[in-house]
Amino acid sequence: MIKVLIITNTVRIWWWTWRQSSLLANSLKKQGYETLLVSLQSKCKCEYKIWSKIEYIENNSIFFRWLIKYITIVKKITEFYPDYIIIINNQISRRLLLIKIFLRNIKVITSTRIAPNCFWFINRQLIPFYRFWNMNHAISKWIEKSLNKDFLLNNTKTIYNLFDVDSNIDLSKNKSEIELNKWNWIINIVTVWRLDLQKWQRHLIRIFQKLSRDYNVILTIIWEWKLQNDLNSMILALWLDKCIKIINNQENIFPILKQADIFLFSSIYEWFWNVLVEALSMGLPIISTDCPSWPREILCPELELDSIINYPYFWWNWILTKPFNGRIILNSIADTPLNNEENIFYESIVKMIKMKNHWYEKSKQILRSRDFDESKIIKEWIKILK
């Protein structure tokens, strides 16, 4: 039996990228692999269901924290002695580069989940050393292209994140404490993720200032983080508190997504936005910025990564719009007209609203989400783990 050790930072359900480690461990175990999942954080309350054996490396020491973890990891490897080690974290990959000295007979696969050009300067200098890993796994073609072109790595392979689509559909049947407006004349629009500059919800709020004057819409933003106070102040200043709601992090978002009419994505850059696939699994129409790197790969795989397109780009029940420029508006928000990118996003929402009869044709969206189902993606992993 082939033994696989998976090292991750945490298995908290809402840490999207790290949650992939638990899904991967579950899928490999179902395929007959002996798996051990090692988390470098203590056990969390919000933990993804794991069938694989899991161990936690707890270390509350302020001093020599990583040295103690490093020694503990080496001990775990020696005890389990796997055929393969998969590292699901860029930060851990960099810190464990020296471990390859002790693992000459063990194949190590490291997962690059963030665009390398967005690393801090010092961390970017370590990327050429990734050639010493047996394989560099990229979660998107865009990331793999950067590893190949910018850092001259050739031991790379793209394998997309995996999802349990049937489980998503089952979870959507659960009752949610959050009930969206059920009146037929109200259009429920949802976006999900942390509130920070990368996600650029400020653009959405400006767009909804205009949209709320023309249509009966309610925007629900799921999650709260760094910028919640700023955004709440902006919402109140624009008198939009009746049509924009910010709700807390939810352990199960699927019942809320199921109630929505349209899903929005407004990032100025991204790696692999898992909730896009999850929105597809709920059959939702989607409007997304065509930012680097992932919405295009998920929604419009027929497009080349660098191809130039006219915005908005429409295909079936989803629309790609021109990426936001990321400039912070210093003038009065209420007095500043929408810029070109915001106008395109606004017109895309209007177009989707007018296509209401198409909202109920969910089969295309669900079918696309199944391209990322664990039953398909795990086959790519099995090709490597032989």
Structure description:
There is one protein chain. The chain contains 14 helices and 14 strands. By secondary structure, it is α/β, with parallel strands linked by helices. It has 2 domains: 157 residues, Rossmann fold; 205 residues, Glycogen Phosphorylase B (Rossmann fold, 3-Layer(aba) Sandwich). It has a 7-stranded parallel beta sheet with strand order 3-2-1-4-5-6-7, with helices on both faces. It is globular and about 65 Å long. The termini are close together. 40% of the residues are buried. About 1% of the residues have low confidence.
Q: What characteristics describe this protein?
A:
Rossmann fold, 386 residues, 2 domains, seven-stranded parallel beta sheet, alpha/beta
Short description:
The protein has 14 helices and 14 strands. The protein has helices spanning 16-30, 65-80, 90-95, 121-124, 141-151, 165-171, 201-214, 228-237, 254-259, 274-281, 294-299, 340-354, 363-369, 374-384, and strands spanning 3-8, 34-39, 53-56, 84-88, 107-112, 135-138, 156-158, 187-192, 217-222, 244-247, 262-265, 286-289, 313-315, 318-321.
Number of helices: 14
Q: Which fold name fills CATH's third level, the topology of the largest domain? A: Rossmann fold
Sheet with most strands: 7 strands, parallel
Query: Which class of the largest domain in CATH terms?
Result: Alpha Beta
What is the number of strand segments?
14
Overall pLDDT? 80
Helix content: 25-40%
**Gyration radius from CA atoms, angstroms:** 22 Å
Summed up, the domain count is: 2
User: Strand order across the biggest sheet?
Assistant: 3-2-1-4-5-6-7
Tell me what portion of residues adopts beta-strand conformation.
15-25%
The coarse overall form would be globular
